[in-house]
Design goal:
It is a single chain. With 271 residues, the protein is mainly alpha-helical. The protein has helices spanning 4-11, 15-19, 44-52, 82-89, 99-102, 109-119, 126-131, 150-156, 158-165, 179-188, 193-219, 226-251, 261-268, and strands spanning 31-32, 35-36, 69-71, 75-78. It folds into two domains: 3-89, no CATH class; 98-269, no CATH class. It has 13 helices and four strands. The radius of gyration is 30 Å and the shape is elongated.
Length: 271
């Protein structure tokens, strides 16, 4: 059993220096003949330590040493938890208003990751590169007319706008034209669970594919028209919805063909 952590908690960072007890010392190392082996000085830390320590425990050499993990939140549980260790080392931030648009059970993980970076405005768009002092051309690679920025790519750019708007063919589904509004819209716009899930998947797929097309033009000089990007997103979403329908069918065998993700998709988003 370690005495060091207790010493630091009780006496602070100066405890080991004043008492001469190593911060890594075990309890057994500070006990001799059944008594605590403590300094006799009058320093307040020494006085505090002598007053605070309980009677010396009986040390058994027959018992093997083990590591006991301490949870600073829940106390000495003795059980190691990687998640609790992470929480102890990293303070939790306040979730952004877009959190439910980025993280939800049906996500396509690589799409959610790109969306998360975009939501935090961390994509290396050309306006940001120029703000860092890099000598780069600022014009959007997709339209060759306006300054490239997150707001422009999603979805003020004619290319991104064409891709995003192409999925909203139903007159009752009116999508917001800009990135910030779209993030909040997919969370609250519709009470129908399947419609809400599909709009979230669509937003993330569109962000991912528009950004990928931008990178393809920058790094490989390869260009695809918006119509091809739209077809690729349609195929991608259909595959994802098919998997979701299979999972629903495994859970609820009474699900009808008119009450599926794919039927909702073809009824509201693709004709």
């Amino acid at each position: 059993m370690g005495l060091g952590p207790y010493l630091l908690d009780l006496c602070g960072a100066n405890g080991p220096r004043v008492t001469g007890i190593s911060r890594f010392a075990s309890v057994a190392a500070v006990i001799r003949n059944g008594e605590w082996r403590l300094p006799r000085g009058r320093h307040s830390i020494n006085v505090l330590l002598r007053a605070a320590l309980p009677p010396a425990p009986v040390i058994s050499s027959m018992t093997p040493n083990v590591f006991a993990w301490r949870d600073p939140v829940k106390g000495d549980s003795g059980v190691f938890s990687s998640s609790q260790t992470w929480l102890a080392l990293h303070s939790l931030g306040v979730p952004g208003p877009w959190a439910d648009a980025v993280w939800f059970p049906q996500i396509i993980h690589k799409h959610a990751f790109i969306h998360w970076i975009a939501a935090r405005d961390r994509l290396p768009t050309r306006d940001r590169l120029r703000s860092w002092g890099l000598d780069v051309h600022g014009v959007c690679l997709l339209c060759n007319s306006s300054m490239e920025s997150r707001a422009h790519l999603f979805f003020l750019c004619p290319f991104g706008q064409e891709v995003w708007n192409s999925f909203f063919v139903h007159s009752l589904i009116i999508n917001p034209p800009d990135f910030e509004s779209a993030q909040l819209w997919v969370i609250t716009a519709y009470s129908d669970r399947k419609v809400r899930v599909i709009t979230k998947l669509l937003l993330q797929a569109t962000i991912n594919e528009v950004w990928r097309e931008r990178n393809s033009r920058l790094h490989r000089a390869m260009t695809k028209p918006a119509a091809q990007v739209i077809r690729e997103i349609q195929a991608l979403i259909q595959r994802k919805l098919y998997v979701l329908d299979m999972k629903d069918r495994d859970v609820n065998s009474s699900t009808t063909s008119n009450d599926t993700y794919l039927s909702t998709w073809f009824g509201c988003f693709q004709r």
